[in-house]
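Structure ticket #2291
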Amino acid sequence: MGEKVVATNKKAYHDFFIDEVLETGMVLKGSEVKSLRDGKANLRDGYAKVKDGEVFLHGVHISPYSHATYDAPDPMRVRKLLLSKREIRKLIGKVKEKGIALVPLKIYFNERGKAKLALGMARGKKLYDKRATLKEKESNREMERSFRKE
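Resolution: structure written out below.
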């Protein structure tokens, strides 16, 4: 069956070098899970912060579920991420390095039906890095086209 991807952050791969990816759980309310199952999430401006030995997800928009009866949670609320203490200590060490950010890459449901977040440890790209990446993608595309024509 595999995993069902709900939302991806394509901009993260354009703006950052992704060094490492961690799978984390999220503390969600019931209507948020139903909204995720409908695919209503946006990761574009999201980031994670370590505070008091816990990791929190900021700036991720999960739309309110349309059929919820009452008390819909705030779509932009701060959500706690579920990580082991060892993983959190590792993250704290990495984030203290200059230029490392925690960026959400995708939200998905694993084989057991649990909502998970792929969290990337990212270093920012400079403008010339972005240009080089685009140039490399374009040249790879051209090579693929030439191979197909033969």
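Closing remark: Residues 106 and 140 are 25 Å apart (CA to CA).
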